[in-house]
Amino acid sequence: MADRPARKTRTPHRAQVVRTDRLTPHMVRVVLGGDGLADFHAGEWTDHYIKLLFPTGGAVYPEPFDLERIRAEFPREQWPVTRTYTVRAWDPAARELTVDFVTHGDEGLAGPWAARVQPGEEIHFMGPGGAYAPSAEADWHLLAGDESALPAIATALERLTDSRADGAPEVPVHVFIEVADATEELKVTAPEGVQVNWLHRGAAPVGEALVAAVRGLEFPPGQIHAFVHGEAGFVKEIRRHLRLERQIPRERLSISGYWRRGHDEDGWQASKREWNQQVEAEQEGAGPEEAAA
Fold first, then answer.
1. CATH topology of domain 140-292
2. Which residue numbers delimit the FAD-binding FR-type domain (predicted)?
């Protein structure tokens, strides 16, 4: 049941924007295509991700695009900047790759790009990577996250729906997705009888409602397989609850911070390993009594 990381493709893919669609006030869908996706493969995991490569410092890179050559020949300040995004869908027949972006005006790099990009424009990316898909061995599933985790959660729900159609047993699935308000909700496909709980944060801190929802959930009997992703602060609190208070084995959890409040992606990725080690040392060294204190 433990997640196994997929082997990462080191050769960049070259793609063209096929179309874009504004899904909600703060989410844009970008569909990529082109012959550069001929050797792209995805589908094993529901949290597949790619690393988009954005030119920086006014750099114009030689063709064919070679990341190792760029890093060898260009000054560091002109290396492409990477941004990591979940694969929302991959259609190998149409050779179309769908990626959803959370946008906040001109804030950030990838969000503004997604909001303004036009069909025909090109972008390079690495990947895919991935490590999670709902386990057929689980007695029930927990899916919880904020907007950044919505694409992976929606894909996991589709996988569970397809599995039931193929004869897999019906098991409980508890879904909690926190967004700013009702305008940010999306229609998602879920197995029959599964309720998607949309939590509206309003002016509250990111993840506060998610932590409360997971803490208040009456856990079904049997083995859980949990997917909890989003802002690192609330992910840490839910991890603490699951590992220490609920005593869930680590191998039944896919749990990590996609981003951290107060940090851009470069800063978060630079500090993520240290953060994770700190969280692990802090939580794995505590017993259930200390965790509940």
1. Rossmann fold (3.40.50)
2. 10-135
